[in-house]
């Protein structure tokens, strides 16, 4: 049992301490930005007492996703690159649709 804990401690040190550099810090910041969209959506939905996706959700998605894509490119992770790249297209498209909807409402008024 002591060996298992020692091995786990070595693994944590190798993963979270030895590899700590500016890129890992950027990755954590990017992941925090990306995760904030869920917190924001949860708070907005709780306040409205229904499911709500605020515009800021898409901006956090775009900003966090772009930073994660940069991180994934630097790490040369093809799965992460493809996933974040496709996500960015969806986030931009949603923001585009929201902007068009606001323009249409403004023209009617």
From TrEMBL:
<feature type="domain" description="Lipid A biosynthesis N-terminal">
    <location>
        <begin position="26"/>
        <end position="97"/>
    </location>
</feature>
<dbReference type="InterPro" id="IPR014546">
    <property type="entry name" value="UCP028440_lipidA_biosyn"/>
</dbReference>
<dbReference type="GO" id="GO:0009245">
    <property type="term" value="P:lipid A biosynthetic process"/>
</dbReference>
<dbReference type="InterPro" id="IPR011499">
    <property type="entry name" value="Lipid_A_biosynth_N"/>
</dbReference>
<keyword id="KW-0472">Membrane</keyword>
<dbReference type="Pfam" id="PF07578">
    <property type="entry name" value="LAB_N"/>
</dbReference>
<keyword id="KW-0812">Transmembrane</keyword>
<protein>
    <submittedName>
        <fullName>Lipid-A-disaccharide synthase-like uncharacterized protein</fullName>
    </submittedName>
</protein>
<keyword id="KW-1133">Transmembrane helix</keyword>
<feature type="transmembrane region" description="Helical">
    <location>
        <begin position="52"/>
        <end position="73"/>
    </location>
</feature>
<dbReference type="GO" id="GO:0016020">
    <property type="term" value="C:membrane"/>
</dbReference>
<dbReference type="GO" id="GO:0008915">
    <property type="term" value="F:lipid-A-disaccharide synthase activity"/>
</dbReference>
<feature type="transmembrane region" description="Helical">
    <location>
        <begin position="20"/>
        <end position="40"/>
    </location>
</feature>
<feature type="transmembrane region" description="Helical">
    <location>
        <begin position="79"/>
        <end position="99"/>
    </location>
</feature>
């Amino acid at each position: 049992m002591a060996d298992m804990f020692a091995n786990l401690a070595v693994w944590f040190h190798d993963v979270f301490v030895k590899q700590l550099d500016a890129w890992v810090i950027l990755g954590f910041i990017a992941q925090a930005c990306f995760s904030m969209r869920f917190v924001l959506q949860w708070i907005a939905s709780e306040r409205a007492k229904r499911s709500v996706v605020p515009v800021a959700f898409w901006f956090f998605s775009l900003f966090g996703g772009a930073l994660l894509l940069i991180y994934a490119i630097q790490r040369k992770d093809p799965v992460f690159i493809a996933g974040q790249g496709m996500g960015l297209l969806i986030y931009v498209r949603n923001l585009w649709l929201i902007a068009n909807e606001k323009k249409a409402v403004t023209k009617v008024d």
